[in-house]
């Protein structure tokens, strides 16, 4: 994979001119608050240093030309005015080598943002876009949201659109929900556009407000280890939607607007055992986010290590109540804790992807080695790891 700083150079090569600018948007890990966003709840993500970069320049016509450094043979040329969700072939220009496919796969995330902006009444023109990046794909680190958010910021700046970041968050989510067809909540786009360096973003989905909470693990001699189990995950396979629907159903049966409003007493009153488990996860997870935020703000005597047990409790709840883990995630979390992590949990939508572990900085590599050893013992493919440093949200770099 090429370095993200190559995007402008690739643009010059493939588009034959200089881009007007470059914009980056990060992937994320969610520290805690999983599967709460679709119940109007709380979440606490950080932005990662891994990011998507978009180099772009306006065109004289109304075409959207998109090239990906990762998929160089898959350049798309689309008609801006004909972008519509659901019909992958209708917006192609011609049928030559320039337009080998409709808006499916990676290009739909870019085209979807243009569509969502257009639908919201913003005036766009044609644009050449080159996409590059180093957010691992399919690892639950929000490479898709990063692509949407970098595109959104680029289009806003290029066409001087009067649209705030919170509006861009909603438009990027709309692109994913209604154009790409993935029923995600608003967590990932919020993290990518609203997070700031050195902070975790406390997101309150109901009130659509957020708070930057100082998150300086290094000062406490700690680090957040990300262990990529390299198990495939996809939100499109129906399990995500099934969980979302279960939460809506549980809220409806309780006569509440959303599970955000439920108490554990309410949950006990649900007749169906599976719905009870799903709802219990959401209710307890929201409480864990609030507790984590209080500790990080200094309410726990200032010791960040105190969030460890909350992370582990979150994982257990996602495993037993929400049932979105897979053996690799469970093994990685348990092995990290056994190796000395203060707490560990899966992060993201689940069904594969990554685990985060709160560890002493000087133990981090050893914890990774021990997780790897446990994977080898069980015949799982070797995991990879890196340290998550709370990084800036989407911004222009050139
Ligand atoms: C995925 C979704 F895209 C988010 O909206 C969120 O629901 C997350 O899974 C689970 O917390 O990343």
Automatic annotation (TrEMBL):
A GO MF term: ATP binding
The UniProt record lists the keyword Metal-binding: yes
Tagged with keyword Translocase: no
Domain annotation Galactokinase N-terminal: ranges: 11-58
Keywords: ATP-binding, Carbohydrate metabolism, Cytoplasm, Galactose metabolism, Kinase, Magnesium, Metal-binding, Nucleotide-binding, Transferase
Entry EC number(s): 2.7.1.6
InterPro entries: Galactokinase, GalKase_N, GHMP_kinase_C_dom, GHMP_kinase_C_sf, GHMP_kinase_N_dom, GHMP_knse_ATP-bd_CS, Mevalonate/galactokinase, Ribosomal_Su5_D2-typ_SF
Residue intervals of the GHMP kinase C-terminal domain: 302-376
GO CC annotation: cytosol
GO BP terms: galactose metabolic process
Location of the GHMP kinase N-terminal domain: 109-194
NCBIfam families for the chain: gal_kin
Similarity-based family: Belongs to the GHMP kinase family. GalK subfamily.
Protein's name according to its UniProt entry: Galactokinase
Organism: Parafrankia irregularis
């Amino acid at each position: 994979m090429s370095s993200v700083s190559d995007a402008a150079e690739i643009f010059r090569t493939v588009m034959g001119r200089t881009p007007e600018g470059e914009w980056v948007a990060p992937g994320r890990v969610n520290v805690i608050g999983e599967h709460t966003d679709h119940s109007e709840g709380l979440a606490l993500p950080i932005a990662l240093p891994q990011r998507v970069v978009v180099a772009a320049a306006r065109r004289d016509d109304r075409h959207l030309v998109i090239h990906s450094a990762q998929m160089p043979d898959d350049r798309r040329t689309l008609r801006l005015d004909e972008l519509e969700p659901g019909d992958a072939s209708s917006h192609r220009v011609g049928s030559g080598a320039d337009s080998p496919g409709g808006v499916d796969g990676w290009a739909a995330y870019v085209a979807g943002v243009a569509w969502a902006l257009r639908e919201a009444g913003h005036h766009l023109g044609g644009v050449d876009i080159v996409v590059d990046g180093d957010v691992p794909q399919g690892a639950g680190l929000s490479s898709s949201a990063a692509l949407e958010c970098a595109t959104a910021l680029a289009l806003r700046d290029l066409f001087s659109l009067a649209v705030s970041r919170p509006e861009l968050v909603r438009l990027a989510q709309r692109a994913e929900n209604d154009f790409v067809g993935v029923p995600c909540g608003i967590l990932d786009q919020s993290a990518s556009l609203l997070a700031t360096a050195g902070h975790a973003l406390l997101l309150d989905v109901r009130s659509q407000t957020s708070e930057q909470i100082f998150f300086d693990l290094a000062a406490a001699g700690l680090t957040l280890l990300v262990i990529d189990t390299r198990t495939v995950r996809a939100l499109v396979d129906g399990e995500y939607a099934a969980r979302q629907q279960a939460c809506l159903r549980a809220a409806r049966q309780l006569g509440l607007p959303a599970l955000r409003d439920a108490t554990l007493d309410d949950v006990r009153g649900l007749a169906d055992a599976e719905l009870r488990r799903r709802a219990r996860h959401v209710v307890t997870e929201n409480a864990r986010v609030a507790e984590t935020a209080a500790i990080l703000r200094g309410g726990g005597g200032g010791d960040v290590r105190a969030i460890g047990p909350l992370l582990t409790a979150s994982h257990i709840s996602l495993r037993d109540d929400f049932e979105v883990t897979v053996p690799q995630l469970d093994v990685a979390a348990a092995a990290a804790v056994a190796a000395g992590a203060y707490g560990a949990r899966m992060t993201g939508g689940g069904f594969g992807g990554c685990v985060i572990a709160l560890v002493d900085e000087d133990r981090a590599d050893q914890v990774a080695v021990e997780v790897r050893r446990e994977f080898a013992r069980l015949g799982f493919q070797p995991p990879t790891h890196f340290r998550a440093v709370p990084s800036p949200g989407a911004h222009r770099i050139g």
